[in-house]
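Tutorial sheet, problem 5. The two components below are modelled jointly, 556 residues in total.
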Amino acid sequence: MLHDLQKDFAAIALSNNKAALLGRVQAARGTPERRLGVYHTNTIVSLTDVLKAAFPVVARIVGDRFFVAMAKVFIEAHPPTQPTLFRYGHDLPKFLGAFPPAKSMPYLADVARLEWARIEAYFAEDRAPMDPTQLAEIAPEMLSQVSFSLHPALRLIDSAFPIFEIWAVNQADHDVIPGIDFGHAECGLVMRRDQTVVQRLLNEAAYQWLRSITTGLALGEATALVAVGSTNFDLQDTLHLLLAEGAFTDAHIVSIKN
Amino acid sequence: MTSPPPDNHLSTRSDRLSPIPVEAGVGLRHPHMSDFVAGTPKTAWVEIHSENFFAPGGPRLAELDAVRSHYPVSCHGVGLSLGSAEGIDENHLSTLSTLVNRIEPGLVSEHLSFSVVDGVYVNDLLPLPYTEEVLAIMVRNVGHVQSTLGRQLLVENPSSYLTFAESVIPEWEFLSALVERTGCGLLLDVNNIYVSAENNDFNTNQYIENIPGDAVHEIHLAGHLVDGEGEEQLLIDTHSDVVAEAVWAVYEAALEIIGPRPTLIEWDTDIPALDVLLAEAEQAQRRMGTDLRASDVA
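Model answer (structure tokens):
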């Protein structure tokens, strides 16, 4: 049956497991092993290139030999499940977090998460950000009941490591990597503005406020929640920044349950 | 029926379904995107890999819309997996349909191969045994794609590195039967014919003479790699170089046997400067003969 043959062939392409098909294929010259091996090489090389393009900073940090060896293990464990390769690599950050050879680079998985957030932002749906003056039209006493619709390209990301800084110093225009203090946490957002992916650091309070908003809390609830743990939250500044980044597509009044 | 080739630099989306002219075109690849967005390269048409434009939004789609305003575009898929025993992925087909409606391409093509099994996608064009069972599966899948898209699909011959012991139908007969039973067209990849013929010992002219020439609506040309030594030497279809001399000779034989067709230069790995790519297209154009530029596809 064709389906069984296709399962066996996929096992060759992904894992170079040729045993099941050796008796069914023919080589005009040379060996069937050599012929089948071409499909394995093509598959691994092309998928490794896809991952390298999606995770250029991870690739730069670990170097080519490490990346190629790591990719081979990843591809076999997590082959693509869709024929749209711009979606391939979603599982890599988690994989890196549990990949023993990467243990000495505990920030690597979070750097990969940042790179994947950039990919998702790049390919997200096109939507116009909300007009900031829309908020000014809401009566002040109603402001606390405002809920925001998020832009499809908005991604939030936080880490115990300075991943935004690590990302920045690993861009191609940095020849010399300056010393980094790996001991501080960073959090922020990734967005797409005017067809360009941007990322922005947020202070902890602003980040927690935005995180609450993304879970569906209204403005007043999110602000009250931040006030519990922080004294340096500035709602005006945070709103100004997020509206300027185009993080929201709409604001509407919700009725708060008591 | 004869019609003049469209002037690409005057054409707009108002000529909705710009047909692909019987001239040379090039594959649209990311490093050259800004040139094609501006509409400056002098080429008769461009071809995209459909799946690269499957995202719901973002800069790539916006760029493609701009390119489409300057050139006729052909959509060449690599992920539909026409040969899958499990049938066609409806989500994938539906996204392709959305793209086709947006771009209104002159041609839509896919491969005689499979790449999906049990929901896993293998990023390669894997070979099929040529049997009645597989032909029935291909006929069903191609028919389904054509009825969903509401248009003809071109099916491309693969490059192959082996043959199956169970194959009983030569590839050219398999493709002829597919055309006959589904009304699909063919995308003749001349480099693939050469690569497969060298790897699997058949005669390229026998192949070209035995496919239905009237069904061929496009030709592909690309560079390949000679890999390995002695008995284990194989030609690998890498799309990583200029078209080999031996492949140009097969192209000229195809022009002789079938006649001129829209011809595309594919270059996907080690992508060169744009002028190198355009020079390859010019070479295809020269071999096609400029006096044939206005003749229509059969």
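Marking note: Confidence is low (pLDDT under 50) at residues 1-15, 291-298 of chain B. Full credit if you identified this.
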